[in-house]
Amino acid sequence: MTEPRTLLAIACPGAGAVDTLALDPTTGQLEPLATVDGLGGASALAFAPGGEARGASPGASPAGTTLYAACNEGRPRVVVLTVDGRGAGRVREDVPLPASSCFIVPDPAGRGLFSASYGEGRLDLVPVPGLSAGPARTFATGRNTHCAAVSPDGRFLYATALGDDRLSWFPAREALVESALEASPQADDGAAAPGGSVAAAPGSGPRYLRLNAAGDRAYVVHERTGEIAVYARDAGSGELELLERVSAVEGLGLEPGPVRSAETPDPGPGVVWAADLRLTPDCRFLYTTERSTGTVAAFAVGADGRLGYLSRTETEAQPCGAALDPSGRFLLVAGEGSSHVTAYRIGQDGSLAPVSRAATSAGPVWVEVRGGA
Known about the structure:
- It comes from Sinomonas halotolerans.
- By secondary structure, this protein is an all-beta fold.
- Helices cover 1% and strands 46% of the residues.
- The protein has 1 helix and 28 strands.
- It has one helix at 172-176, and strands spanning 6-12, 17-23, 30-36, 42-47, 65-71, 77-83, 89-96, 103-106, 113-117, 122-126, 137-139, 145-150, 156-161, 166-171, 196-199, 206-211, 217-222, 227-233, 240-247, 274-279, 285-290, 295-301, 307-314, 319-324, 330-335, 340-346, 352-359, 366-369.
- The chain has a 4-stranded antiparallel beta sheet, with no helix packed on it. Strands 4-5-6-7 form a 4-stranded antiparallel beta sheet, with no helix packed on it.
- The radius of gyration is 19 Å and the shape is globular.
- It starts with 5 loop residues before the first strand and ends with a strand.
């Protein structure tokens, strides 16, 4: 029986659009499907958990699947889309966001969407139709908050503060349940205070944090230095303990980069500008992208969770967003500077072989895969 094609959604703020593509799960061939225009500042995407459609094959559920798009042009908002089995999307409604967003992820318990604001240094849990009708909640995370991740057991919420070089965690079951909100610790501005935090290396700029499937290791890519930090995670307390730091940019001749914003000048191509980090579903390999050089670094993940450098692959210009297909056979990398996406077949040794490339709308920054890692 032929496997249904995998559905990709790509946020392209340069065009104010979201593209949909299909990925053949056997060959890795990409096929552009449709474009949803009128999404100014589309910066981050998330498929709703438990959506009906599992792929982009003809004949899929006509009800489609729900896709959330964080859009920052004008007023910050989440646009709720329905994507049908052929990749065509239609806008259902807008949900206001309390701040601009660079990262969204559904709360697996179904209470809403976590939205990280880089510009305003905050993390919000926002009720979204179809997920929750509960109250909004703000978390004290720090300057240039860049991502949110919930542990696989659902007990802790983690966030990175790129500008403060800090990782924080919050007790999810206590801090997020409506009946416990008043009793949870609060920062001076009324936001929920973290249950704990750990300092990253000064000037490193922690960007994305990913947890392995077992939930006992956390991996953090640092935008300013290109380091990957590996942490052991205590399931009971949520605490993170540093195991190692490895460089993903060694030999590239780059200097540490600045904290970037719309107000700071472009530092040019000679500095580190690390971006995405992805773990294969079997947690054997880790990949991270570097935008200044347009490369992907590959690492093997040992039995203890530590990393061993494997190789570096030239890829799209300014590779901001990446994703893995559900099977872990293919890595998808989008080039903000090239307006293309490339599918790489992952070898048994973790090597990357390009198998397909497709054009996108201008400036792709985020790749979301239905059911992907």
